[in-house]
C-alpha cells in the first residue's frame, strides 16, 4: 500500500482527527489537541478485575467514542476503506494505534433472507 488510506473526522467541538490505515491493516488515530481531554478503559474479567494491559475503549471529549468490537467504518461514515473490526488500542505519541482485524464476510451470502416466512407473516 503506497498511499495509505486517510480519513478525516470532525467531532462536535471542531477537533479534527485523522485515521490512517497502516500497511499491516491497523489504523493510526491522530488529532491536534484532540487527546488533551479523553478517557479510556480496560476490559473487565468475570470476577470484576480489570486487565489494564489492554485498552479496549477510547473516548476523546467531543467524540468519537470507539470501543473494541465495533466496525470502524460504522463510526467514520463513508469510510469503506476502514471496513475493519476494532480489537484494541495502543497509546502512541500522536494519539492511538487502533489494532484491528479484517471484517470477513461473503457478499454473495443471502442466508439472512431465508427467514422470510416468519418475518411479519409476509410471504
What characteristics describe this protein?
8 strands, five-stranded antiparallel β-sheet, three-stranded antiparallel β-sheet, 123 residues, mainly beta
If you had to describe this structure to a student in words, what would you say it looks like?
The protein has a five-stranded antiparallel sheet with strand order 1-2-3-8-7, with no helix packed on it. It has a three-stranded antiparallel sheet with strand order 4-5-6, with no helix packed on it. It has one helix spanning 72-75, and strands at 6-10, 16-21, 27-31, 38-41, 57-60, 66-67, 84-92, 95-102. It is mostly beta strands and 123 residues long. A hairpin with a 5-residue loop joins β1 and β2 (16-21). Helix content is 3%, strand content 35%. It has one domain.
Order of helices and strands: EEEEEEHEE
Tell me the Rg in angstroms: 18 Å
Shape: globular
The total of beta strands comes to 8
What structural category arises from helix and sheet content?
A: mainly beta
- Largest sheet entry: 5 strands, antiparallel
Separation of the first and last Cα atoms = 47 Å
Total count of domains: 1
Identify the strand order in the major beta sheet: 1-2-3-8-7
Q: Share of helix among residues?
A: under 10%
